[in-house]
Amino acid sequence: MTLFFDTIFLSLSVTFISVFFGVILGILFEKTTLPFKNTFLLIFSLSLFLPPYIIALGFSELFGEWLFSFGGVVLVESVIYLPIPMLSTFLLLKNINKSLEDSARVYCSWVCILRKITIPLISPYLFLISSIVFLLSLGNYSVVNFLRYKTFVMQSFVEFSAFYEYKSAYILSILIALIVATLLFFEKYYTKKNYATIFEHRGFKNNNLIDLKNYNYIVLSFVVFLATAFVILPIFTLVINSVSISNYIKAFELVSDSIFRSVIYACIGAFFITFFGFILAYFIKRKNLYILDFFSVLFFAIPSTVIGIVFIMLFNHEWSSFIYASPIIIILAYILKYSAISSRLIMSNLAQLPVSFDDSARVLGASKIYTILHITIPLLKKSFIFSYFLAFVFLIRDTDITMLLYSAGNDTFAVKLFTLMANSPQEIISALCVMMILIVLSPLLAWFILRKIF
Amino acid sequence: MKYFFLVFLFIFGFLGCSNDKNKNEVVIYVSEDQVFSEPILKDFEKKTGIKVKALYDTEESKSTGVVNRLIAEKNNPQADVYWANEPIRAQMLKQRGLLSKYISKNSKEIADNFKDKDGFWCGFSARLRVLVADRNMKKYPSSVFDYLDEKYKDKAVIANPLFGSTTAQISAMFIKLGDKKAKLFLNGLKQNGVKISTSNGESADFIAKKRYLFSLVDSDDAVSRIRAGKDIKMIYPDQEEGGLGCFVIPNVVMLIKGAKHENNAKKLIDYLLSSEVEAKLALADCAQIPLHVEVKPPKELRALKDIKVMKVDYKDVAQKMHEIEPFLKEWAGY
After folding, report:
1. Chain B: nearest CA to A188, how far in angstroms?
2. Domain that holds residue A51
3. Mind telling me how many Å the CA of A53 is from chain B's nearest CA?
4. Contact at 8 Å (CB) between A58 and A238?
5. Taking CB atoms and an 8 Å cutoff, what residues of chain A touch B167?
6. pLDDT at residue A186 is higher than 90
7. What is the ipTM, given to two decimal places?
8. Is B128-246+322-332 a domain of CATH 3.40.190.10?
């Protein structure tokens, strides 16, 4: 029980710190005249796309022994999850109905507007985002494992791997299911009610920015400090440690097969996740099947260990050997775990498509499938591309699911890097981490290029 | 939509075909660290042309993850060979009927106490359980019982006895000392403020960083730190007349019952039990002691014949480990 409450306290601390800094940065990047804010937005977002243990490794090089403590875990997890409230605040502020702020500006300063109008307007959503950070921190395994910090999830993994006991995993799943149900209930019945008042449609933006005036350089220094301490230094340490061509050659020899497999699994997985994400989004938005939303978010929130255990129990039979002993089991688990990312992303864009488009096509005699294929899907093209790349990034960095489910000879780069960390030379591990960073960033770069084309 | 299902079927069919038992391959589950075991398996591939598909234990599952997977796959075995980093769980697998008998021609020179008398498993390249101490100590500890010495209160560390080689040694101590004395020893660890670390590697690091004075670790953890220039001293414990002796943990290889690639599996077992592999593992950073007499030990370690070894039957240790598991879980707070 003590361990359970310790874990809750740890996750609350992580949530508080990442949301506090995330909201400040989100406001600075969207609402102020801060220079280079798009560059900073990208830098701070990096940690979301990297495997969490790479950030932990980078920090361990900087902080040494101290990092292997409660404070260290809070620091690393806060940095990893900071982009979620930061990007959410950024997007919420981008889409907020600016006429409310404009009216207030007649008699009130920006500080007063932020305090009394903007932040209260987005606060229900911030609560929702905080809950997501809390859930992710609660289910995090790779950071606490790397930093050897005992949490409830760690215990459930150890109990499973050491004694084949599922009790803690079940308790954790039930708790997470309850939190997810509460969150979705809150989202459906509270935030949706006020959506139209708070947010405006795209295309009617009023880009009034807060002029930081004399504070520009002070705020810039603060942001530079945070970016350096939270993201640049840990990554830079890894680059410095690995700086030798021979290290990279050795590292590549060790993992070339795994990199190939990782890319193949991520390509296939991202394709199916985008497809099922669209199906889910369509049924949730157009057919009001909210139960699908509950389950997809639940599977995303449940610790990967639990999904892994269930899949082993489900497919470890002679009749299903072709699934269990092949990469299919990993791809299926990826689809179950990550479809919520794609469905949520596509859902938000689907919501902006008027239903009248479908109705017009139907009146003209088009079938449902024809309407989806020739009207809905082309209009959601950008969402599909972004969803594909986002899913690709999440799959290529996945360790927790793959580690439990990969069959002999089918390990991925992320898993191999994780297992090689035990007793491998530090410079090789750093080189592998830098390679992982480059692989994770390449699809994001590709997305930016494709975005220009489409 | 029909195109999507065709794509779906093609991709999953293609991926599913990777599980073909007629291929010239062998599937091995490995608990030895990947960084040391993988080069050995690659060499086997080069020598024989047989593709090795390996699944490695991760550090955090403390060499039990793969064992549990083998147990879970009892009715649907995926592995042909298991390379364990200790013999206790091999014995447990034998008791559960998961192993097939195979006596390799290369096992003849290995002493009887390092192999199963029924031929279900055979040991090779061993680790020792040694003490590492801060080199600046005036007098080094010489026995595991020094953990209970009041002068070392809050100054010693041991890896969690619930996992890995520490469990095996504690079980062996239960056999040598009897349950009552062994329980007193474990409770004494708590009373004397012995810190519990997550692994032997972490314990060795604690000593190297001078956070604690001494710890019981595996010899490979000690040697790797010594090779890295850390200021630590390695001690063979309980070497005096009547002492418990140094606990030896060989690697162990075994054939899995129902192996899909049995012939290739036997070839791999022969290779792992060869003196060539023992020489490679002695030279590697894991610094393991060869069980073939003609192979030289790592320069930092004595040959096995020059060490007083704790004499226990690994079969009894496995049995005891199973018996004391509830006590150990309670002791460790699980």
Report:
1. 31
2. 1-241
3. 13
4. yes
5. none
6. no
7. 0.72
8. yes
